[in-house]
Amino acid sequence: MAELSTEKSRRAKRPASRSPAKSPSEDVTVVNLAVLNRDEMIAVAAYYRAQSRSFEPGHELEDWLAAESEIDSQLLAQSRAQTPV
Q1: d(Cα 58, Cα 56) in Å, to the nearest integer?
Q2: Model-level pTM?
Q3: Where in the chain are the domains?
Q4: Any residues with CB less than 8 A from the CB of 46 and at least 6 apart, and which?
Q5: pLDDT value, residue 33
Q6: pLDDT of 83 above 80
Q7: 35 φ, ψ to 5°?
Q8: Which residues of 28-63 are buried (b: 16+ CB within 10 A; e: fewer)?
Q9: What is the signed CA dihedral for 12, 15, 18, 23, rounded to 10 degrees?
């Protein structure tokens, strides 16, 4: 019973995803980058950065800026990979 309540509390703290329904064979951790807009992607990345340090206050801007840089790099790499040479 304790495991069930722990699992529920972990799920409750995650931000909502707007990704389409996945088939059972797909890995649920994969996020379709085309579905989420840039700001949502940054918000999710910043959330996980904050979570990794137990939501210690005072680092919100640092988390956002680091997440923004990370997401912009990913989007640029994805764009370059899709652009024909």
Answers
A1: 7
A2: 0.56
A3: 32-85
A4: 60, 63, 64, 66, 67
A5: 54
A6: no
A7: -80, -40
A8: eeeeeeeebeeebbbbbbbbebbeeeeeeeeeeeeb
A9: -50
